[in-house]
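To assess whether the prediction recovers the assembly geometry, we first specified each molecular entity separately, as shown.
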Amino acid sequence: MSIPWLPISIIGTAVAFYVGFKNNQAYDRLWEARKIWGAVVNSSRAWGSCVKAFIINKHAESPMSEDELFAVKKKLIYRHIAWLYTLRNQLLIPTPWEHISQNGLVAMVTRRRMKETGVGLYDDGQIENILGEFLPLDEKDRLIAYQNTATQIIDQQTSDIANLRDEEFLDGFKHIKLQGILNDLYDHQGKAERIKKFPLPRQYGAASFIFTGIFIFLLPFGMVSEFHKLGEFGSWVSIPFTVLICWVYITMELIGDYSENPFEGLSNDIPMLSLCRVIEIDLKEMLGEEHIPEGIKAKNGVLM
Amino acid sequence: MSIPWLPISIIGTAVAFYVGFKNNQAYDRLWEARKIWGAVVNSSRAWGSCVKAFIINKHAESPMSEDELFAVKKKLIYRHIAWLYTLRNQLLIPTPWEHISQNGLVAMVTRRRMKETGVGLYDDGQIENILGEFLPLDEKDRLIAYQNTATQIIDQQTSDIANLRDEEFLDGFKHIKLQGILNDLYDHQGKAERIKKFPLPRQYGAASFIFTGIFIFLLPFGMVSEFHKLGEFGSWVSIPFTVLICWVYITMELIGDYSENPFEGLSNDIPMLSLCRVIEIDLKEMLGEEHIPEGIKAKNGVLM
Amino acid sequence: MSIPWLPISIIGTAVAFYVGFKNNQAYDRLWEARKIWGAVVNSSRAWGSCVKAFIINKHAESPMSEDELFAVKKKLIYRHIAWLYTLRNQLLIPTPWEHISQNGLVAMVTRRRMKETGVGLYDDGQIENILGEFLPLDEKDRLIAYQNTATQIIDQQTSDIANLRDEEFLDGFKHIKLQGILNDLYDHQGKAERIKKFPLPRQYGAASFIFTGIFIFLLPFGMVSEFHKLGEFGSWVSIPFTVLICWVYITMELIGDYSENPFEGLSNDIPMLSLCRVIEIDLKEMLGEEHIPEGIKAKNGVLM
Amino acid sequence: MSIPWLPISIIGTAVAFYVGFKNNQAYDRLWEARKIWGAVVNSSRAWGSCVKAFIINKHAESPMSEDELFAVKKKLIYRHIAWLYTLRNQLLIPTPWEHISQNGLVAMVTRRRMKETGVGLYDDGQIENILGEFLPLDEKDRLIAYQNTATQIIDQQTSDIANLRDEEFLDGFKHIKLQGILNDLYDHQGKAERIKKFPLPRQYGAASFIFTGIFIFLLPFGMVSEFHKLGEFGSWVSIPFTVLICWVYITMELIGDYSENPFEGLSNDIPMLSLCRVIEIDLKEMLGEEHIPEGIKAKNGVLM
Amino acid sequence: MSIPWLPISIIGTAVAFYVGFKNNQAYDRLWEARKIWGAVVNSSRAWGSCVKAFIINKHAESPMSEDELFAVKKKLIYRHIAWLYTLRNQLLIPTPWEHISQNGLVAMVTRRRMKETGVGLYDDGQIENILGEFLPLDEKDRLIAYQNTATQIIDQQTSDIANLRDEEFLDGFKHIKLQGILNDLYDHQGKAERIKKFPLPRQYGAASFIFTGIFIFLLPFGMVSEFHKLGEFGSWVSIPFTVLICWVYITMELIGDYSENPFEGLSNDIPMLSLCRVIEIDLKEMLGEEHIPEGIKAKNGVLM
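The predicted structure of the complete assembly is given in tokenized form:
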């Protein structure tokens, strides 16, 4: 049985629109996510540099020793690093629409991909341990209990610098500058959460999926009638070509599908671990520390 | 009777342009709306955190007790939560061009959809009751009488922090920072109102609708002539395909139509209730409250 | 006589590009214009709210009575409303390339459309009378004589708040915040003027018009040859289809053409009068006035 | 000799992409250039208004007379007008890739077009004379000798207001606000220079040109084979159609080509002279001058 | 052997989408990179101009001589120039996905292109030597040892201006303004690094490459069947056309490929060396130096 090519090509127009739309929007989401993390890098460097230079004894009511002053600065910078890793951790918690949360086969494949070409490649330890390195113990326990730990870490920073302002270790100008950076961090965090928590609207995603399905279902009937013109043998020749075209269109659909959520922990995601480490290195170098950790290196061509 | 395919395909070009245009712009409106509410989240966190840390007795002319000070902060933060729910409520009031305001069948279907897969899923109470929780009684009655309550709530905040500045609970820097956040809230509110009150221009929406209608009307005549080539039986075979294609194109048109207005209270809208609650939780945790409400959970896969 | 379809379809590609381009850019101009007026709303609310809260006697060299203080605030807010209506008025002055300035028939039709479905629907009075309500008499006469009245109104505001600063009714922080809002208003005004005074570049608009003309001229010859295949009767059948397609393409061209200039005073324009009134209401409510004007209501489905 | 249509249509796809790309990007460059000059207008108004209102005797160490004070303000505002004309002048210096710098015929035609429908229409005098009107003589000679005069004019402004700050004619708030406007001017200048000095990348422009050339070269062979189906006479009929299509595609290519560089001094460019004059008028009216120059009027439908 | 055109044209749709996507995104990356460097220019001018005008003796605790003051300013401005060249240098370090890092032939050709039409055209010396010109010796050695030298140079600037603030050579307003410029520089640096370190996602680039490959592989079979209609001789005629089309599509693919990474050191890149020199000239002229270096001139039509 065969059908004319025309109805297939009309449906093809709808497929082309939605698959193209999905690819474009998925890329935009990915690229916006990367921009947000880029902005996190920039704000982090500004935070480290300003904290280091701004807090001084000069006008303080009860000046601190040099070591105490350094400890205050280090606490503010280390807590910032804690915020970074916390944010990364919160963004990796699966949402119901990500591949890992789907049924059966998809979840299984995704689990294997995460392990072999995703976050699983790096044994980056439990978040509690990481926070333990950068936060005092009691503070860690208190902060980790909140519903949104990252939010409350910044709230703690706000509170700390307000105290430094009260005790005149900061003047009004510097205080507001630092607070401005903290508010920027709230912006970056909120933007990353927006991309994580608001998927590509389901009506668009589903249209792409369904229309591609219909197209692929009808394709063989149309191909047969075309290849039949080559003679009887043509029908058999049509099979590899049909398979090839199906593969191309399913690939297009899947590229959109896997780029859509840039915080899934898979190989095409934003390399958050690597970016956190880049910042950690820059900040520790600013503090003049001796033990600078190594940058994250790509494993099997995958950077996380 | 049958007609050649050519004139249909030329009209198809116009259909493709406008349906694609409508889908793209509708998505842009939806995504911008989500960005605006994301910005509301970020500004809200900054507001809570700064209010908590900024207001101090140190330079005040007549210092308050710790409890009074806390009460002042809590009032400012609770009034902000009142603003959130008020804004949501104002954005849900139907406009004349939304589906609920249309005639007969469309309105009926929309009402059912709102109840079963939209705002109706959540018994979120009357706005008066919600405001009663977050505003003093007399203030609530006064504010609710204004034509645009949300605008006047922020005006009240402006007035309050100006008074705190006068009495030196805030210095000039902090005052202007807080005022800056309030002005940002005016921006967010105005942007959300812009999307609500300025629909996709009717000339574009109507072109999409009319051209799709013409296309679907002409489609069967063109399909018959194509399928006729398969023999007499072909004409009958054309029927399911015509129906399928019509379904695809009507679906495309409807996807644009229902994404266009992201504050209608239907299942594809911005989940404003959920976002209000997220902020409420963060702010109450900042205040150290004991009774933290639960986050809004998706019902039937719909998050409002 | 008939010609093959091919050359027509190649020209059709050029038509599709330019008509699509024109529609897209015209929509972008319209939407940007709406965003600018949305920003005017936001800045206006911030202006009203800040003026009301900021100006105080506390540090003033020669304090005013409560009534005098209120009068000062009211003058600043009323002058702002005057700026709004002036800006609207300036944006409605026709430019040489708008439809009202064209020859003969187009101008006549446009005049009728303006009267029946445009600005003519609202008897909004002469701008002099409106300004008389919001400005002192001598100031009105002076300001109206300038080449760009709106610019000089803001200059007057700048001058007034600088004086308030000198006399210490404002501190430096508040002064700069208010000045910042005035500079934002210059931005909004300049952006609106940019859209008004820089049309869609003529080379693009003309290409769209000319190529559509060529396409429509050649269309019948191509259609005849296609329909001729249905038999002799086919040539006659081609007529209604040719007319339909021409209508579709002329409609597309016109949609772009009439969306292009969003400040012409026609039905698809930015509803500036309505927005001015919305702001007027909000500001008067902030001032606690008793006689709040009604919002502008749509007439015949048209909101100006 | 004739060839099948297919290979031509495949190349046509590449042509469509690059010609469309070039048109879109050229328009974006033009529109961004207009936005930048719009921002220059806005910043200029803010500069004039703020300079006029900010500089006061009140806290000055050695107060000036009213006339001296006015002279200081006028100098700052006039020097700004000098900057405007200097910027325009610098942007009109031809780059190696503009039409005027090309060989033989193109340069000759461009020179004629500049004279008849471009900058040549306005005898706007030598830049030295214009600067002579707005700058003191010694300053003019010094500034004009720099490699980038516009940059150094703003540097001079920076220096002047810093001095006014030192002598307490400005407080810290006002000083920083004025400096902020100067930094914005650096931004606007740099953005305009970016568009001037970084053409549409050659690889894209060349692809558009070459592919269009191949397409137009192959077109006649394809057209002949199509028209041949109409009978022997058809071959001759194909000639006018081939010419028409070539004209359409060359026009498309040229529209992109001439919109690409918006500061060439040709008729479709940004009307910089007119914008400079608009600002000059606004600023002179702010200064209360008596001799306000006329606005630039369009000549032969061309506004420069 | 020959196959029908249809399956090839369906794959052609996928090719068109991805090749077009790659070209568009590559251009966006290139243009964003140019914008970032444009912003570097603007911030650099502001830095030079503000440093020169802001630092004064007036309120200083222990005033410096004029020469000492000038030396301080010169150090800050020269260190900024060092930052520029350092940033350029860091952006030119090859990443694993750039052409120079690929295997065999591609790397060899790229090396030759870099030498003949890329960075190799300019003997711009070792970065150590350049830094030696603009930094004190001990500082140079210390800064160059950091993992990210550019970051730490700005940290040094932050530290220096904080010291100047402490010693009251700067007031609070000016200090924060200068710090704001430094934070902007962190933004620019981070944005450039984002483009350098986050390539066009591999899933998109690979799809473009693979689908083009399949298309080009199938093309001859389809062309033969088309040209065969011209008679037996036609098969031979199809060869040059097939080659031509392959060349067009490979060119399209390569244009995207080479525009994608705008900091590779090849001829279509951002002319960073030239921009660094432009800034160096402006800043040295601001300092009133006598030996102003020449601007970089294009060699063989290539500006680096």
